[in-house]
C-alpha cells in the first residue's frame, strides 16, 4: 500500500523516529508503526494532521498524486516568482522534442 510507504519515506526524510512523529501528531508510537506496516489506516482527521505536518496533500499521502507540494511560506513574493520560473524552465527542458 502506498500510504505506508509514503508515510515512512516522509518521516525518514525529516530524520524523525516513529516516536518523534507520534509525539508531533499526538499519537502513540505503536499507531505510527501500524500505519507503516500496513496494519492500520488513519482516520480522515489523522490524515489531515499528517498532511499538514509534512506539507503534502492527502492525495499524495494516499498515493493518488505523485507530486509533493513545495513549502514557499517563508519565501518573499519575488523568490516565489523566481522558483516558479526555474520550475517552468525544468519542465520545458524535460519536455520531449518532436522529431
What does this structure look like?
This protein is mostly helical and 99 residues long. Helices cover 62% and strands 0% of the residues. The chain contains six helices and no strands. Helix 2 (18-25) crosses helix 3.
Index terms:
mainly alpha, 434 Repressor (Amino-terminal Domain), 99 residues
Low-confidence stretches: none
The secondary-structure class comes to mainly alpha
CATH superfamily of the domain at 2-61: lambda repressor-like DNA-binding domains
CATH class label of the domain at 2-61: Mainly Alpha
Given the C-alpha coordinates, what overall shape results? elongated
Q: Tell how many strands the DSSP assignment holds.
A: 0
| Helix residue percentage | 55-70%
Mean pLDDT value: 89
The CATH topology of the domain at 2-61 is given as 434 Repressor (Amino-terminal Domain)
**H/E element string?**
HHHHHH
Distance between the termini: 39 Å
Query: From the 3D coordinates, which CATH architecture of the domain at 2-61 would you assign?
Result: Orthogonal Bundle
Total DSSP helices: 6
| Rg over C-alpha atoms, rounded to the nearest angstrom | 17 Å
Main beta sheet strand tally, sense and closure: none
Beta content comes to under 5%
